[in-house]
Specification:
Number of strands: 27
Shape: globular
Helix content: under 10%
Largest sheet: 6 strands, mixed
Number of helices: 4
Oligomer: single chain
């Protein structure tokens, strides 16, 4: 399946799913990760998992597990160093895999990032676990959507990067753990969901905008390279997205962190970030802004960041963008109501300087909201209607006498699967599911209609 921008128009019947008062879904239990720069190992994988590489596993959520999700959802990740003495990045994703597949190729499916974390400077050989916790209640609407789940299985990916390094590896890590000599295991990790309450479906709009786009000012961004900037020399990225019908309570879910620059580069300088909707600023923030002293307990490896104990708050505010051993924030940006049509997400970091063409900000973002109208034919009744709906094969676009000059049909992934002109739609070649039809009549009036294909 071609990797594409994930657009999910989620429509559900309005009935409640029952869930127990409190339940836990254990997805990973002490999965072992291996050196990020080494050849992929052939050691056994966790039960039910596939190994993409030494840093990444995938496990499919079962229908029974998803059925337990109620009105709240908490994601808990624990990570313990086996033989790693550096601060690295880890994350958890949802991968959208064709229904019934027993495995998949990593780069051939779409995904969103649920959560990201920074590992600590630590090499206690698994004796100390670091906890990371996230509220991901908004993702229940994705897991529970009946149309999406009829096409895809949801695989949860857990990824932890690590490397033993070596004598004289330098950087902030000040010593090499000799206990790790000759070993290739670097971390073990666990992941579980906690849920409670009763789930009530919503008519949800959900669109992925980027997954770990490497924002930097020294590469020109293109449609295919997943890195760079809109304008060379400026750190800015714009992403257009379409809303089929009016949406209420829209939000961006934004994850970003600063990595990989050289000395005195962006990894250690706090810069103001600005987030926009249609060129209207919706959030401005500076990363960090907290003391890392509470995380010192997890940083058992001597390093140049922590230094003497304790450090003052002004010390931490002077340079740190994140704390080793802490969760990277999921920034929820309120957008309010979105009108039907085209919109643009934009992020800027005006003062960023990438010394020597090094460093990047890995950025993941998606947008969610609730459609303002409900029902299969309530998107727009004024100009064009469609019958029959649901449809088996042939549908008719009904107007007030004007010809339909253009139409497009978009599937649940945002892919255009049909286009043309005229009042007849032949949907016989399309799979069962929910589609969005956009039709324009001779006077220029455009309508958006949701149609169910049997």
């Amino acid at each position: 399946m071609k990797k594409t921008l994930l657009t999910l128009s989620l429509f559900t019947a309005f009935f409640a799913y029952k869930a127990s008062a409190q339940s836990t879904v254990q997805v990973y239990d002490n999965a072992v990760f291996y050196g990020m720069y080494q050849s992929t190992v052939d050691t056994p994988v966790p039960t039910g998992a596939i190994r993409h590489n030494n840093t990444s596993y995938g496990i499919k959520l079962t229908e029974e597990q998803i059925a337990t999700f109620g009105s709240t959802l908490t994601l808990n990740i624990n990570a313990a160093s086996l033989c790693d003495n550096y601060d690295r990045i880890g994350n958890a994703n949802i991968a959208f895999v064709p229904k019934g597949a027993t495995s998949y190729v990593y780069n051939e499916v779409d995904r969103i990032e649920m959560a990201r974390f920074i590992t600590p400077f630590m090499y206690p050989d698994g004796d100390l676990e670091v906890p990371y916790t996230y509220d991901v209640t908004n993702l229940i609407d994705v897991f529970k959507d009946p149309v999406l789940s009829s096409t895809y299985d949801f695989w949860v990916e857990l990824e932890i990067a690590g490397y033993q390094g070596g004598v004289g590896q330098g950087g902030a890590a000040e010593m090499y753990p000799q206990i790790c000599a000759g070993r290739d295991d670097v971390y073990r990790g666990s992941l579980q969901f906690e849920t409670s309450g009763t789930y009530v479906p919503k008519d949800t709009y959900f669109k992925k905008l980027s997954y770990k786009f490497e924002l930097k000012n020294y590469v020109q961004a293109t449609a295919d390279n997943n890195q760079g900037t809109d304008v060379l020399g400026s750190t800015v990225r714009s992403i257009a997205f379409d809303v089929p019908a009016a949406v209420d309570n829209a939000k961006y879910y934004f994850i970003n962190s600063n990595h990989g620059s050289n000395a005195n580069g962006e990894e250690y300088i706090r810069r103001r970030h600005n987030i926009y909707l249609d060129d209207v600023q919706k959030l401005t923030y500076v990363p960090g802004g907290k003391s890392c002293e509470p995380y010192r307990q997890y940083n058992t490896q001597g390093n140049g960041i922590y230094g003497a104990s304790p450090q003052t708050l002004s010390y931490w505010l002077g340079f740190n963008n994140w704390c080793p051993g802490d969760a990277v924030p999921i920034r929820v940006v309120d957008l309010g109501a979105l009108a039907a049509g085209s919109h643009t997400f934009k992020v800027t970091v005006p003062n960023a300087q990438f010394n020597g063409g090094q460093g990047y900000f890995p950025m993941s973002v998606y947008v969610m909201g609730t459609y303002a109208t409900v029902g299969t034919d309530s998107f727009n009744k004024a100009a064009v209607t469609l019958t029959p709906n649901p449809v088996n094969n042939i549908a008719t676009l009904n107007t007030n006498g004007e010809p339909v000059t253009a139409f497009t049909v978009v599937n649940a992934l945002g892919q255009q699967v049909l286009s043309g002109a005229g009042n007849t739609l032949d949907m016989s070649a399309l799979q069962s599911g929910i589609y969005v039809v956009k039709a324009t009549v001779a006077s220029g009036t455009a309508s958006t209609i949701k149609v169910v294909k049997k």
